[in-house]
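User: My instructor asked us to take a sequence, write out its structure as tokens, and then describe one feature of it. I'm not sure where to start. Here is the sequence I was given:
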Amino acid sequence: MDFPKLRCTALLVVLAICSAIPAFSSAYNARPKLVVIMVFDQFRGDFLERYYDEFGPDGFRMLMNRGAYFNNCNYNYANLKTAPGHATIGTGAYTAGHGILTNAWWDPRLNRSVQSVEDGNTKFLGINSDAPAASPRNLLADTIGDELKLATQGRARVFGVSFKDRSAILPVGYSANAAYWIDNQTGAWVTSTYYMQQLPEWVARFNASGTREKYLNREWKDTTGNLFRTTAPNKDAKGNVVSYYSNVGGTPFGNDYELDFVRELIRQEKLGTGPVTDLLSISFSANDIMGHDFGPDSPQSRAMILAMDRQVAGFFRELDKQFGLANVWIAISADHGISPVPEEAAKFRIPAVNFDGNKFEDKLNQIIGRKVNRPGKYVLDMYFPIVFLSEEAFKAAKYSEADGERIAGEAMVEAGMRGFFTKTQLAKGDVPATMMGKKFANSYSPHAGWYVMGVSPPFMVRGDGSDHALPYSYDSHVPLAFMGAPFRAGRYVGEAEPVDLAVTLSVLLGLNKPTSATGRVLTEGLVEPGARGAAAVKSGLQGLKPTAK
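Assistant: Let's start with the prediction itself. The structure tokens for your sequence are:
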């Protein structure tokens, strides 16, 4: 037997096979050039299936057909709001890890409600305002963007963009080059002194270019020409000028305007052209601004989603032209779903109700006052279904935090809730070993003062229209899909969670996972070059026959 010849032949087979196997991707060598995370605010997971037949071939349908599409993705926590959802997507953790409780909470030090990203130590850039600006300082965990920055010693470029400050800031974390959002009243793009001391010249030029004005005085129609509304400047019932955020932001033109800014950002900041991978997070707010008024089953919702499909397709074509889609990884998800409008659910004899939150707070104060035999204002604020309590009022009645929160929770049950979890309980992990117990344990935050999280009946909505806030499937079910070289095309029906997004991307890029991440790598949706290569080598070697002397 000619063993040297056999060894040489085998080596050539192995080398030939290995040369055909793509190298592992790595952020360190700009593979891919750019990662784009797209978050669609208030986009429920079933929307992709509902409107599949109406989508064009190059938008959402391309993600579903050519990407790894997980149609059974649900948040596993109770506080289904915009700020915690975006923080979860970036950190791969739930509130117990990243600390963002809801969009706003009561700050006992300031004796008022504060926004999740509010930062009194920062100032706005892009407008003249004395109001506190925003930063990621309330985050208690880092993000995939932070890990990318650490791994590349700051060479990676990381940006977040959204109409909303919290949606721009929280997915990209502490170290982003910038997060940009709009001034609600004027529509100008702004940032804060947390990121820089002067607004970039290109952003100032964009604000002065007339781009935002071109979306005023427009008609929003559906595909059949039915007029929904115009974006002509107008005033509300109280005589106040309707903000750009509400006027344009609640139509598909809001997404068009945001994509105009994104294109300019990619060009001016030279994203995807450096020696390492760059990251861009884009959160589209228009569906949420519209959806609270009309709900998920309205003609407006359908028209918005079909418009988003066309907008996504156009953006994909631009990425392909600029970078080649083979050099871009795309991930999409949503921060939460949405409840049906209660009167719609009621048509099918499903118990559902809109209720007056102010009256509910008054009722709680009355019940608590009766229970402690001391009238007072015990409920300071409510971000349904979280109730923020007055430490001073309970201490005056000689109750500790644990007892005060328990009494408030009992009052919530008396007022119509199914149950409650107190901050004291959650801090100790004192929850039942049930699905609901785990969701609320994942929702704990040390931020805010005393609070109680109510367990509401399903389909209960504060105020008019629709809302999202509850630990039920219509709020927790969101889309999750990936497209790019490492992802195996397919429709995966096993359980997935939004915390998996940051973990999957981090591991594929060769990074550390974000500090508090609890998600898993979605291996079922990945091609496996290592496994394919080993199988191919094994097959090749098995085909070799010893050669006689």
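For the description part of your assignment, you could build on this observation: The domain at 353-457 is CATH 3.30.1360.150 (Gyrase A; domain 2). Try explaining in your own words what that tells you about the chain.
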